[in-house]
Structures are given as structure tokens and as C-alpha cells.
Amino acid sequence: MMNDFTNDNSHISTIWLIRLVTGKGLRVRNLYKIRNLSGGTVHTLATLPNNSYVCDCCMGLNIGIPCRHYFKML
Predict the structure, then answer these.
(1) Could you tell me if residue 45 is inside a domain?
(2) Using an 8 Å Cβ cutoff, are 3 and 12 in contact?
(3) pLDDT digit string (tens) for 44-62?
(4) DSSP string of 2-61, one letter each residue
(5) CA 15 to CA 65: how far, in whole Å?
(6) Nearest to 32 by CA among 10, 54, 63
(7) From CA 48, how far away is CA 40, in angstroms rounded?
(8) Nearest CA among 11, 28, 10 for reference residue 19
């Protein structure tokens, strides 16, 4: 079943996130831990040297629009 991004608990591991980035020949500039305001869910967001990002929710990779975790990081 495809993630419709209504479940904020759905994410990939931080290790897998870093493997995705480095597997494309990129490097991680910064890693951010994004915590839900209720304190429950934690997501990892990696910024890259080319001013892009990858979040462990994969919303940006799947549908091409910034996720809520990216806006919280800003």
C-alpha cells in the first residue's frame, strides 16, 4: 500500500536515508531531528550541498513537494 502521508509514523531509517544520499554520490551537509509538537514522532531531515534536502518521510522524493518536516526545519 502506498503512503498517503496522513500517518506521520511512516518513515525510513536514518541509516537508509544516508545510504540513499551517498549512493547518489552526494554528501550530507546537516542532519536535523524534527520532533512533532505532541512529542511523539521524530523524523530525520538531511540537507545537501546543492541546497536540496531529503526527509525520511520521502514525501519530496515520492510526489515532489516539500513535506511539513522541511517547513518545520526552516
Answers:
(1) yes
(2) no
(3) 999 999 889 999 988 888 8
(4) ---S--TT----HHHHHHHHHHTT---SEEEEEE-TTS--EEEEEE-TTS-EEETT-HHH
(5) 23
(6) 54
(7) 26
(8) 28
Q: Give a yes or no: residue 64 inside a domain.
A: no
Distance CA 26, CA 10 (A): 24
Say what the pTM is.
Answer: 0.78
Structural domains of the chain, count: 1
Cell of 71: 517547513
Helix (H, G, I), strand (E, B) or coil at 62: helix
Backbone angles phi, psi at 27, to 5 degrees: -125, 155
Asked if residue 34 belongs to a domain, the reply is yes
Cell numbers given for 8:
506521520
- Could you tell me if residue 5 is inside a domain? no
The pLDDT tens digits for 17-42 are: 899 899 989 999 999 999 877 767 88
